[in-house]
Write a structure and sequence with these properties.
The complex is a heterodimer of chains A (413) and B (300). With 413 residues, chain A is α/β, with parallel strands linked by helices. Chain A folds into 2 domains: 161 residues, D-Maltodextrin-Binding Protein, domain 2 (3-Layer(aba) Sandwich); 198 residues, Periplasmic binding protein-like II (D-Maltodextrin-Binding Protein, domain 2, 3-Layer(aba) Sandwich). Helix content of chain A is 49%, strand content 13%. In chain A, the strands form 4 sheets. A 5-stranded mixed sheet of chain A has the order 2-1-3-11-6. The chains are: A alpha/beta (413), B mainly alpha (300). Chains A and B meet through helix 3, helix 4 and helix 17 of A and helix 6 and helix 12 of B.
Chain lengths: 413, 300
């Protein structure tokens, strides 16, 4: 009996060995993804994407490491210094991407990007990922910021959802009088304040001039009346008490709690916020375009595809890495939109179950232009500066004029 | 064995590997950082493009300007050092003296004061974050007091002070334990003799106990001074993201957010130098009593 068993075992081993040789060992690729927390809206879609990949590409095995977004940013920068980035990894576009591109850590994808693949992307999807005509990333999501209005509170206090700047100021005053904090803001994290200043600046300065400044084009300047007017407008909101009294010490997450609880009527934030709303809140919240100022820039949006997957320049398997990169980006785009985690960056037939996300998708599709946020388009200490200066505006330690002068220093390097 | 260890040469041979290893992982990087701090900004990676710029970064670091937070950061760290020395250490000493006297529940109190030291600084910071953002404002509201504008951690004038309190509070137990341990080693007969001579309470503390634990006081002072210059974790968690209100915070932001490696290296070297200078100063102040705890006493 023992002998037969041993024989069977030996046979099985030989069979499996030959099978392995026949099919070839799968190529193993290291992948770094953010969304380590179970609560992340993108986590479930990413798990689905990975399962789909496993089924579609048995010849490639993905070893995924999960990180928290900020931790991965630091970790990625550190790994880049020692040329040990994973084969395929999540990364931001714009200036953050440029940091790694300029140090030669990211593979240009032009050789792999056929017209067929490009046609499947939405228009202009690669703009923030292309440097000197070379594409370094494939987006999995499109982004934009909008004004989230809690219709329940608007109805309760008889306030009209603002469509113009004056109506916005009236709404702020009305809520303030009723003892309701008008707008949510987590100023302690700095970047949530940029969400407000960027969209206000866009309405006053316009896409073209903003873009010139954020991409440091020659001749661009912050020292114009339009910029000053924009920042003064933001200051008006602060002075009216639009934001929580302790906004400066709140993190983004802390600041959103009262909004989720239905205590704050308005919030300017990215489209991903709609994915964090509970099904009950999704019925109450209406996402609208930021109010018009009447300078001709009223249908312009902040955002654009700003996150994606990149391939390390030091990968041993560039062909397989590109296959994985494209698959992850495209399928995550579909899966993310399907469950309301983000707007798609690839053309899709998928429908979203989140009504707020659908409202955003519809409106942004008819927008005139999409401009990447200042702190994402700028890099290094310029990005830190635009965060610091809006923090100071909020703290009242800097005037709109000083803000413009401080920002102008980014051109003097 | 005794014969081997009595040979100075053999001791040197045994110690040498450790010295070499220590030099490689501690001393060598300090000099390498010093070298980086003299180069111009290296884009993302140390490459051929770098060249020598001398003390430019050090000059930039201390050139006053509205957008140069470093001089202010140094002042803040000195303030924190002063607070540790003049508030935290005396308070620890006070508790240590009380506990060394052997009150009821001595070990209970000792352990209780030590608990914050065991907890991770991040946990302590989150805990105090809740206090500043929830408990304290509610208390102020209940008492009808004015909460600082923008909240305790948002007010530009007060936030740094509020971020100091948690770490001051946290390490009271640490210094208390060191001092308490030292106080316990003072021979009973000295205390008894002093008591017989009529010394008690404050007199006993200031004339007998504190002079006798001077070496330990020096240790505590060094720890709190150096700790002040390196302070990072609590303000990093409590205050706004990417704040540069202390030298270590500024160095971190310049290095990892702004990618100014050389400039950050210069700040790191400044922190190292600051620690060395103050340690030397402390050694000089305490030079007499080192190792001879009774000397001062004998003179009196």
């Amino acid at each position: 009996m023992k002998k037969i068993l041993a024989l069977v075992m030996a046979l099985a081993m030989v069979m499996s060995l030959t099978a392995a040789f026949a099919e070839g060992e799968p190529v193993v690729l290291k992948v770094a993804s953010i969304w380590s927390a179970e609560t992340e809206a993108n986590r479930a879609p990413m798990l689905k994407t990975l399962a789909e990949f496993e089924e579609a590409h048995p010849e490639i095995k993905l070893e995924v490491e999960w990180y928290e977004a900020n931790a991965w940013k630091d970790q990625g920068e550190t790994l880049a210094l020692s040329d040990s980035l994973p084969d395929v990894f999540y990364w931001n576009a714009g200036g953050v991407l440029w940091n790694l591109v300029s140090s030669g850590d990211i593979l240009a994808l032009n050789d792999y990007l056929t017209d067929d693949i490009k046609d499947q992307l939405i228009g202009g999807a690669l703009a923030n990922m292309t440097f000197d005509g070379k594409v370094y990333q494939l987006p999995y999501t499109n982004a934009c910021s909008c004004l989230y209005c809690n219709t329940e509170l608007f109805d309760k206090y008889g306030v009209k959802i603002p469509e113009t700047w004056d109506e916005l100021l009236d709404a702020v005053k009305a809520f303030k009088e009723a003892g309701v904090t008008p707008m949510a803001l987590g100023g302690g994290d700095k970047w949530p304040t940029n969400m407000y200043t960027d969209i206000i600046a866009l309405r006053f300065v316009g896409d073209e001039a903003c873009r010139a400044c954020y991409y440091k084009t020659e001749g661009a300047t912050f020292l114009t009346d339009d910029w000053k007017e924009g920042m003064t407008a933001f200051k008006t909101l602060i002075d009216l008490g639009a934001f929580p009294d302790d906004a400066l010490s709140l993190t983004r997450d802390e600041s959103e709690v009262p909004y989720f609880n239905g205590e704050i009527p308005m919030y300017v934030h990215g489209q991903w916020f709609s994915g964090s709303l509970s099904p009950e809140m999704q019925q109450k919240v209406k996402a609208v375009k930021f109010p018009a100022v009447g300078k001709g820039y009223d249908n312009q949006w902040m955002g654009g595809p700003a996150e994606g997957f990149s391939v390390s320049a030091h990968t041993a398997h560039p062909d397989e890495a590109f296959v994985a990169c494209q698959f992850l980006a495209q399928h995550q785009s579909d899966n993310g939109f399907e469950c309301g985690a983000g707007l798609p960056a690839w053309k899709t037939e998928v429908q979203c179950g989140n009504p707020v996300m659908n409202q955003i998708a519809e409106q942004v599709a008819t927008g005139d232009s999409l401009l990447l946020w200042g702190n994402t388009a700028l890099s290094g200490d310029d990005a830190t500066l635009i965060g610091d200066t809006v923090y100071d505006l909020l703290a009242g330690t800097c005037t709109p004029e000083q803000w413009c002068e401080d920002m102008e220093t980014i051109f003097n390097k | 064995m005794k014969r081997v260890l009595s040979n100075k040469w053999s001791i040197m041979v045994f110690v040498l590997p450790t010295v070499l290893f220590f030099t490689y992982i501690v001393i060598f990087p300090i000099f390498k950082t010093l070298w980086y701090s003299l180069l111009n900004e290296i884009p993302a990676k140390v490459g051929d493009a770098s060249h020598f710029t001398g003390l430019t970064h050090y000059i930039t670091m201390f050139t006053p300007g509205r957008r140069n937070p470093f001089p202010g950061a140094v002042v803040n760290s000195l303030l924190y050092a002063a607070l540790s020395i003049f508030v935290q250490l005396p308070f620890s000493m006070f508790i240590a003296l009380l506990l060394a006297d052997g009150p009821r529940g001595e070990s209970f109190y000792r352990n209780t004061f030590f608990i914050p030291v065991v907890i991770s600084s991040v946990v302590v910071s989150l805990l105090w974050g809740r206090i500043y953002k929830g408990l304290l404002p509610q208390l102020f509201e209940a008492m009808n007091w004015q909460v600082p504008k923008n909240g305790f951690l948002g007010n530009a004038n007060t936030k740094i002070w509020f971020s100091f309190i948690p770490s001051l509070w946290q390490y009271v137990g640490y210094h208390m334990l060191l001092m308490y341990g030292a106080l316990k080693t003072i021979p009973e007969d000295i205390i008894e003799a002093a008591t017989v001579d009529g010394a008690s309470g404050a007199k006993l503390a200031f004339r007998i106990q504190i002079p006798m634990i001077k070496p330990m006081l020096k240790v505590c002072l060094s720890f709190s001074l150096i700790g002040s210059f390196k302070l990072f974790d609590t303000p990093w968690v409590l205050l706004e993201r990417s704040n540069m209100d202390l030298p270590a915070l500024s160095m971190y932001v310049e290095m990892f957010s702004n990618h100014k490696y050389s400039y950050a290296s210069a700040q790191a070297i400044f922190i190292v130098a600051e620690c060395l200078v103050f340690t030397a100063l402390l050694n000089w102040v305490f030079r007499e009593s080192d190792g001879k705890p009774g000397k001062e006493l004998a003179r009196k």
